[in-house]
Amino acid sequence: MSWNIGGLIDAAASDEQAEQLGGVFSGALGEPMEARGPLVGENLGVERGKPAQLVGIFHPAGPDLTAAHARRSKIDAFGISFEGKAAFSHEFAWAA
Question: How far apart are CA 41 and CA 82, in angstroms?
Fold first, then answer.
């Protein structure tokens, strides 16, 4: 296999948090993510982004909420543009 992987993290994350999360998701820090190492062809790194939010609403948890259930997704990161019908959708094909 030759997967290309990349991570998207909150824009407010510190440089230290970004580095640590990059290590976790790349498998560099061991644990379960390390097992997918043989599948990864290229680690594209980590990009920062702003999460979707509802701001200035009335809700028991507070006036600002980070949301939601995705019915479609649009990704434009790491030089890849993709639009899908769910939060984790991607077209793929199996080959022997």
Answer: 20
pTM: 0.50
Structure tokens at 61: 């948890």
Read off the pLDDT of residues 81-93 as tens digits, 9 standing for 90 and up.
Answer: 878 775 544 454 5
Regarding whether 64 and 20 lie in a shared domain, the answer is no
Tell me the residue range of the domain where 39 lies. 1-50
Whether residues 12 and 56 share a domain: the answer is: no
Measuring CA to CA, which residue among 61, 37, 48, 64 is closest to residue 7? 48
41 & 65 share domain = no
